[in-house]
TrEMBL record:
<feature type="site" description="Substrate discrimination">
    <location>
        <position position="55"/>
    </location>
</feature>
<keyword id="KW-0808">Transferase</keyword>
<dbReference type="InterPro" id="IPR022880">
    <property type="entry name" value="DNApol_IV"/>
</dbReference>
<comment type="function">
    <text>Poorly processive, error-prone DNA polymerase involved in untargeted mutagenesis. Copies undamaged DNA at stalled replication forks, which arise in vivo from mismatched or misaligned primer ends. These misaligned primers can be extended by PolIV. Exhibits no 3'-5' exonuclease (proofreading) activity. May be involved in translesional synthesis, in conjunction with the beta clamp from PolIII.</text>
</comment>
<feature type="compositionally biased region" description="Acidic residues">
    <location>
        <begin position="448"/>
        <end position="457"/>
    </location>
</feature>
<keyword id="KW-0963">Cytoplasm</keyword>
<keyword id="KW-0239">DNA-directed DNA polymerase</keyword>
<dbReference type="Pfam" id="PF11799">
    <property type="entry name" value="IMS_C"/>
</dbReference>
<keyword id="KW-0479">Metal-binding</keyword>
<dbReference type="InterPro" id="IPR001126">
    <property type="entry name" value="UmuC"/>
</dbReference>
<dbReference type="InterPro" id="IPR017961">
    <property type="entry name" value="DNA_pol_Y-fam_little_finger"/>
</dbReference>
<feature type="domain" description="UmuC">
    <location>
        <begin position="46"/>
        <end position="226"/>
    </location>
</feature>
<feature type="active site">
    <location>
        <position position="144"/>
    </location>
</feature>
<keyword id="KW-0548">Nucleotidyltransferase</keyword>
<comment type="subunit">
    <text>Monomer.</text>
</comment>
<keyword id="KW-0235">DNA replication</keyword>
<keyword id="KW-0234">DNA repair</keyword>
Amino acid sequence: MFRLNDPKLGFCRDCLAPRRAAASRRCAGCGSPRVLVHDELYELRIAHIDCDAFYASIEKRDRPELRDKPLIVGGGKRGVVSTACYLARIKGVRSAMPMFKALELCPEAVVVKPEMEKYASAGRQVRAMMQALTPLVEPVSIDEAFLDLSGTERMHGAPPAFILARFAQDVERELGISVSVGLSYCKFLAKMASDLKKPRGFAVIGKAEAPAFLAEQPVTMIWGVGQAFAQVLHRDGIRTIGQLQRMEQGDLLRRYGSMGNRLFRLSRGDDTRRVEPSNERKSVSAETTFDNDLATAADLVPVLRALSEKVSARLKKGDTAGQTVTLKLKTQDFKTRTRNQRLPDPTRLADRIFETGLGLLRKETDGTRFRLLGIGVSDLSDTARADPPDLIDLRSRKRALAETAVDALREKYGLRAIETGYTFGKGTKGRPPRAESTDTPSMRPPEFWDEMDLPDA
């Protein structure tokens, strides 16, 4: 069916029939404009698959009356946008934008609260379909992953490009959502390609065209170049990747240290990282956004306790423990603070998570008003080494036994059967005013807090 490396032979993404390149770029069979032709189409093996406006797409799938309306998935007016459909994005709405700003840009938008278990279930379905293509699937977040399809032609009877197009069709037909595909020879460019033609996109970046393609892109397209570092580059007169391509490696190293080496390599499309399959959760957390900014320990500590209990419950349910505790705070001007402490031994106890977080929180309660508080643990392991008896602090053993007894009572009679003095009378989330929970996984490249709050399997 396919003559590999034939630059004149492509296929239609809608009817999947092989088609020759034509001036009209339309399929002669079904009339679709989505004919895929590229000089290296059948040579490339590294893909990045990203679901389109994932949460919003699932909501529109389940609620057809919202299909033609701008839709925002997120918290209340004090929360942030988890995701927005493309109709809302046209108005400027973006993920992580404060909700009040999003509604100023798109006041006609319908706002729905996230249903994380529903999204997690759909994410697992998409992941399973990816793993049917290749065992080399590297998840990036709940709705995106890298795939290495090297050596899969014989298994599927077709090259990776064709298999990916068929996969996109299968997702739409079986799950009712769409994906965008990027295909290239490395992860960096595959990720870049998947963003080029959203939604329902399929973009290809080959080796031959990579330097010229990259030359026109802004430096912010390089992984690791955030706003702060982009400003440094801009001050040095560097705004495009093409400018980096003309610089010597030694010069970049002298100016920017180890980051200079990344700039040199990625600006030339040199990315040798492999697709590394991993199904391990790297962290567990809980966080919440307040209706009103809080500043005092009297207000913040009960919230910290309630969230610590939530994290502990997840750890216990997953039969895992963590050794690094991280406190997350977001100030009223949306600046994020993260503070962490590594414990001598892994823990899954709410008491230890809370006491550690409390020590970190005390250093931050200096009158600053906060709109968000979170607590999490990372460096996860099984429970074999978790919470060993403390020969010096004998009270810690008693607290651990008491927590076990509390867990048993809650398991039998419900979460409100017994409460600590920290949270008693303050509701299930530990704070006086009603607040919006923002236990949502991030869509950005993985860092500690980007991987927090993945829903329980």
